[in-house]
Amino acid sequence: MRLVVQEWERVLVYKDGRFERVLGPGRHRLPAWRRRTVRVVVRPRVVLVPLQEVLTGDGLAVRVSLTSAVRVAEPRTWFEAVDGPDAFLHAAMQVALREAVARRTLDELLADRTVVPDELVAEVAPAAAEVGLAVERLALRDVIVPAELRRAAAEVVTARAQGLAALERARSEVAATRALANAARLLDGQPGLLQLRTLQAVEAGGATVVLSTDPARTAAARATS
Predict the structure, then answer these.
(1) pTM for the complete prediction?
(2) Do 104 and 57 have their domain in common?
(3) Same domain for 86 and 174?
(4) Do residues 87 and 95 make contact, with C-beta atoms less than 8 angstroms apart?
(5) Is the pLDDT score of 219 beyond 50?
(6) For the chain, what is the largest distance between any 2 Cα atoms, rounded to a whole number of angstroms?
């Protein structure tokens, strides 16, 4: 029997139902009599834990999904240890995810979504090794909070933005008042500045300027552009 094993696979050889050896990449020749071969793909693949409802540490229900990249590290263990090793790993990931979310409040969960996957890798790795798998990386795919919490968060953001806008308007009004007060003090000290500013306004045009040199007499000069 001639076999060609690809780079991304390994071949298990059994003789009379007993394990004999693992064939690596390349061309192989072995007796076919009383032997059976099993091809195992060892390149990474994605295992997804779909959305599930989990209670956080502060009693809020969120829907969380998880994605992971796994590969077969021990082909013989993967084939012999359990029936359905991927399902075994999926269950271990699901339980670990529930426990990790339950240890945190919603704010902690949303604040840093990288901490939970790091913990899950450490917790799931032993279970994965039992079935010949290695977990290369994990990530929280979705964290969906209830609609009422989303509305409440939106209201908080809106209120914060409105408060900042009101604060900015108040600061602008204070700055304008200070500018007027400074201008009034400057004019009191140097009355000639008022006449110069008046002449600038007349020259620029488009404004109505009222000149008063005597409290008993007033003269109006209209400048138009």
Answers:
(1) 0.60
(2) yes
(3) no
(4) no
(5) no
(6) 129
Find the helix or strand (DSSP H, E) in which 32 lies: none
Shared domain check, 77 and 31: no
- Taking only the tens place, the pLDDT of each residue in 68-117 is 999 999 999 999 988 889 899 999 999 998 888 888 888 788 777 778 88
Q: End-to-end distance of the chain based on CA atoms, in angstroms?
A: 103
List, for residues 101-160, the tens digit of each pLDDT value: 888 888 788 777 778 888 888 889 999 999 999 998 888 888 888 766 555 555 565 667
3-state secondary structure (DSSP) of residue 158: helix
Q: Rounded to an integer, what distance in angstroms lies between the CA atom of residue 19 and that of residue 220? A: 113
Helices (H), 69-134: 75-80, 85-102, 106-111, 115-130
d(CA 65, CA 28): 43
Cα–Cα distance measured from residue 222 to residue 220, given in angstroms and rounded to the nearest whole number? 6
Instruction: Check if the beta carbon of residue 76 is closer than 8 Å to that of residue 48.
Output: no
Residue 152 is which amino acid? Answer: A
Which amino acid is it at 144?
Answer: I
Write the DSSP symbol of residue 73: S
